[in-house]
Amino acid sequence: MLQKQKTTKKIVSQQLPLILGKRAFGNIPKTPLKPLEGEFEKPEIITSTIPGPIGKRLIEDLGRIQEIRTIHFLVDFDRSFGNYVVDSDGNVLLDVFCHISSLPLGYNHPSMIKALRTRDAVQLAAHRPALGSLPNVSWGPKLHETLMKVAPEGLTRVFTCANGSEANENAYKTACMWYVNQRRGNKPFTDEEIQSCMLNKPPGTPSLSILSFEKAFHGRTLGALSTTRSKPIHKLDVPAFDWPVAPFPQLKYPLDQFVKENAEEEARCLSRTEEIIKSNKIPVAGMIIEPIQAEGGDRHASPDFFRKLRKIARDNGVAFIVDEVQTGVAATGNFWAFQKWGLDDQPDIVTFSKKSQIAGFFHREEYKMTAPYRNYNTWMGDPLRLLQFEVILNEINKDDQAMLRNVNITGNYLQDSLKELAKKYPHLMKDVRGDGTFIAFDSPTVETRNSIVNAIKLNGVELGACGDQSIRFRPSLVFAPKHASQFLDIFESTISKLK
């Protein structure tokens, strides 16, 4: 921590001050969350471009061996802290994107650094175990103390793995195995099934499908990619399963002015989804849906839509899979975003990754594998990442869940302020929406959206894009009203200069 403070002073002394406007966005609300001691006071930009000269040189060198066209800039983790990221040139930016929603406590959180310096962390890093065969002695107790503490009601088992794509991929396998086992009557595999599967032929390799929704994103492995529908660039030139796609509601905003139209749109999508399940040439074993379609443009639907969708899955014997890879772990104001739906029957499978650090899925008891090695790989996740999740969970639960309350307070303040700005700059932004700090708005064109993201970066903010013309907010859970106020000041200062 002392080294961090020395570094901060050195950086600030070299930087030109960012001139902020004197804009008011109402009273900054109070938060129960304690501030991080030693955090930067504001962004500081010292180069005329981001990346600057050092970053450009390093990225060019990296480009000789890896794809670099998606890189925003190179991060100096030693100097980054809290909600502020420092790049290779010494620029300090307010990070409202947080590595695509995967950095829940911000940079160098004291509790995380302390935990990773312990003997337990060193041993787990030095001996990454093959968890399916040789788990460490603390693996079981730690699962009970962490992941199972936040498991959705009725989902009594958990499978762990490395990333979101892998979580969804294994969830699809689980749904298909469950589906066939129900129809097999829980009987042993036949000789014909055993022999035919080795040739990728039925009956051992059944023709089944996973239904997903327009604009969905569920990963980039072959099965997950077959359910991803957000952008063509993800899918071009890659073989895919012939799996069905259902419409996802395209709501109109403000919601209170389009109640009838949005209800009709949701009813249309529900009707079409059930029609597809009943008539699809390949039987539908499961459906997967995001509580908020993140990569597809932060598209929302009402709790009633999801409740009715869950009933459609249950009535038709289809596994109901909720993808909480991006929405999970408190960003929406609930630990799991689907908890706002008010379901009377919980999902069958819930996948997670990103903010939890470790990935995997929870599932009902009846989805348990009927034989070993059916869902299995060498590592099956990483106990070091589970240690990190334990730190995150402890911080969320600290001080009567002050961090979760902070998300709701900050999210309401940020969203209300953005709605006011949308009225003032309707040619640049519209349709502000979100839950907690999981917020987005649309620009009229992709060019306008990109110009905002690029311009605000040069004013000290790392912001994200999604969908065709959306800007999304994915700040850390320690992003407080004071950070939101600082962002809003920089944001309006930026867009006021755009045409």
From TrEMBL:
One of its GO terms (molecular function) is pyridoxal phosphate binding. GO terms for biological process: gamma-aminobutyric acid catabolic process. It comes from Anaeramoeba ignava (Anaerobic marine amoeba). CDD domains: OAT_like. Its cofactor is pyridoxal 5'-phosphate. Keywords: Aminotransferase, Pyridoxal phosphate, Transferase. Its EC number is 2.6.1.19. This is 4-aminobutyrate--2-oxoglutarate transaminase. It catalyses: 4-aminobutanoate + 2-oxoglutarate = succinate semialdehyde + L-glutamate. SUPFAM superfamilies: PLP-dependent transferases.
